[in-house]
Amino acid sequence: MKNNLLSFFFFLCCVMATQFLSQRVWAQATPGSMTLDQLKTIKAIKIANLDKDTYFKSGGFILDRYEERPAYVFNYSDGIPRKIYLYKVFAAEDTKELGLLAIYQNGKTNEVKPFVIPGASADRKAWDAYIDDLKYVGEKEPGLMSALGFVLSREMAMLMAGGGAKSEEGGSKKKEEYNFCFAADAPVTLADGSTKPISDVMMEDQVMSYDANSNSIIATGVTKVNKHKGAFAIAGVWLMPVQEITAGNNSRLASPTLLEATANHPVLTAAGRKPFGEIKAGDVLYRYEPATRTVVAYKAVRTEPAVRTVDTVYSLSTQSGSYLIGETVVLDK
């Protein structure tokens, strides 16, 4: 009787915490409406490495580690460590936020149990499926309900205290702007003038960067290499030197230079920072000229929203906030 009451308490705690958390989180996001079929698809997603795979696309969905936090770890008296991983779930097509994915892992057996927590506007059938999982799955695994109840309650408390998910005005990144990356073969210009694929770049490598204040090329250190797996559309922009375009001698024009990136990666233009997918013919970007070691204006002469699709993308974080891809100035995300 006592165990039944305790199980019911944890069940009720999870339901109440989930309801509050969903209302607070999705009030600050662009909400979508999760269906029962979507819940089933999300629940079936397999994550290869829970500790390393903090962001990826699968089955038409984007999974992003909640507030970039590591797993919650619980060490009970039975000696079995338990973990809870939280991911926010977005529809890949329109990046609307659908809900949360909570993954429980038994540290002894490594068995995982996913719980898809619908957003506040989700279909009632999706909510019924989540509650059924709490009742019929959660109660069968000792320690699961208390761990999940604690995590959801703690996130609820942080939201009430003003922490946790932040509004766009509070400084968090806009979730419709996830794809800030390049294909694995994108050439990064190193500080010594050589290049190597972005997939081979390592932390603390020295790469070329552009200093807008001095209008000069400088060396900068790589502080982080970001890697994401999924299905990513790569946009293309063809560039020509402004001087050659204005010269009017078409017979001598060199072939346009192709720059590729995901649509939301920021680049430096004459008008300032701009998402790559918003570049239009006539916009001016900047490229490094090795012969003169200067930065030269290039004009976009053609754009394509999707020149190819890749399954792995990369981006860099640098000390200066910019680097060169194909000798074109791009910005940290």
Automatic annotation (TrEMBL):
Q: Which SMART domains match?
A: HintN
SUPFAM superfamilies (UniProt xref) = Hedgehog/intein (Hint) domain (SSF51294)
Transmembrane residues, as ranges?
Answer: none
Q: Which CDD domains match?
A: Hint (cd00081)
Stated name of the protein:
Hint domain-containing protein
Provide the leader sequence positions.
Answer: 1-27
Query: Keywords assigned by UniProt?
Result: Signal
Tell me one GO biological process term. Answer: intein-mediated protein splicing
Show where the Hint domain sits.
179-289
